[in-house]
Amino acid sequence: MKISLTFDNGPHPDVTPRVLDDLAAAGTPATFFAVGRQLDPDTLPLLRRAREEGHRIGNHTFHHAAPFGVLEPPLEAIDEIERTQALLGDLGAERLFRPTAGGEVPDRRLMTPAAHRHLVDGGYSCILWNNVPRDWANIDGWPQVALGQAAGQDWSVLVIHDIATGAMSHLSRFLEMAADQGAQFVSDFPDNCVPIRAGEPLWPMDHLMRIPEAS
Ligand SMILES: [Zn+2]
Question: 2 alpha carbon to ligand 1 midpoint, in Å?
Fold first, then answer.
């Protein structure tokens, strides 16, 4: 059982430091997908620490307001990507991008043709997921749910959130349980969760986009 551990929607000034402590104690690598509006002089150093401790950093939109397919003006997909990318600076050098789904399972609202083209042209990797234990709703029970899902998958890309729900108080317990069950934590992502890798489309995202009708 292979697991790529990803933290979305942070960084958070109180939660992310504890998450980093727990990951360091367990020797577990992870990726932090940061929301641009969370980035300020207090939280940017947390991402810097994460990178120094061997974790990867990605871009998770600026406002995290809605999936690209249903963004209302004045919010716009390419701006949502580039504003956060600019704030990340050198921390964003890997050009990892994770879109906002508006639910656990991505649907046709996820992406737009214009944003897809932008990610390809910009050399981004688009990182999706296949294991969402709903830690924001199942504060105490998410570790069991995550491991149950992972047990049925060759390679899980697990999404949890370094935000102030209380769920991250169970992170170290989760890491212990996972190790006991033989989980191997890795930094890379499987192709089936990566529709675009370093600007190269690996598989079509048509089922995740509302294609405008030809007129
Ligand atoms: Zn998110």
Answer: 22
Token pair for 133: 């234990």
Distance 20 CA to ligand 1 centre (A): 19
CA-based nearest residue to 89, from 7, 161, 34: 34
Q: Tell how far the Cα of 214 is from the centroid of ligand 1, in angstroms.
A: 32
Q: Give the pairing of strands 184-185 and 2-8.
A: parallel
Q: Is the pTM of this model over 0.85?
A: yes
Q: Sign of torsion, CA 80 86 87 93?
A: positive
DSSP one-letter string for 105-137? S--TTSB-HHHHHHHHHTT-EE---SB---TTT
Exposure class string for 24-36: b at 16+ Cβ within 10 A, else e = eebebbbbbbbbb
Average pLDDT over residues 119-128: 98
- CA of residue 166 to ligand 1 center, whole Å: 17
pLDDT recorded at residue 104: 86
Q: Which residues contact 47 (CB under 8 A, 6 or more apart)?
A: 11, 32, 34, 39, 57, 88, 91
Helix count and strand count (H, E) for the chain = 6, 9
Ligand 1 centroid, distance to 160 Cα (angstroms): 9
